[in-house]
């Protein structure tokens, strides 16, 4: 789906090192959405941009699926 998926553990390490809970994370090249997914997991707010419509849609599906799953777990 994406030729260079960012490893989640690397994203989490950077988010943890350079931000605090509630901070805003900006990903200027969102790609597959790894940084956004990890920011969501770690309690950060986030915004992103992506020049490729294909990758934007990929990240949107990936992050939306994670958020829906999280909300379902909270509901149960």
Structure summarized in a few sentences:
This protein is mainly alpha-helical and 76 residues long. The protein has three helices and two strands; from the N terminus they run αβαβα.
How does this model look, in words?
With about 80 residues, this protein is mainly alpha-helical. About 55% of the residues lie in helices and about 10% in strands. The protein contains 3 helices and 2 strands; from the N terminus they run H-E-H-E-H. The protein has helices at about 10-20, 35-40, 55-75, and strands spanning about 25, 45-50. It has a two-stranded parallel ribbon. Helix 1 (about 10-20) packs across helix 2. The protein is globular, with a radius of gyration of 12 Å. The mean pLDDT is about 90.
Q: Specify Rg, calculated over alpha carbons.
A: 12 Å
Poorly predicted ranges:
none
Q: How far from one another are the termini?
A: 31 Å
Strand order of the largest sheet: 1-2
How many E-type strands? 2
Structural classification = mainly alpha
Instruction: Give the % helix.
Output: 55-70%
Mean pLDDT: 89
Strand count, sense and barrel status of the largest sheet are: 2 strands, parallel
How much beta, percentage-wise? 5-15%
Continuous helix count? 3
The helix/strand order is HEHEH
């Amino acid at each position: 789906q994406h030729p260079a998926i960012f490893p989640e553990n690397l994203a989490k390490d950077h988010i943890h090192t350079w931000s605090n809970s509630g901070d805003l994370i900006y990903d200027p090249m969102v790609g597959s959405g790894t940084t956004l997914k990890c920011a969501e997991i770690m309690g950060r707010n986030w915004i992103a941009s992506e020049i490729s419509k294909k990758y934007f849609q990929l990240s949107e599906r990936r992050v939306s699926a994670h958020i829906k799953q999280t909300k379902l777990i909270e509901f149960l």
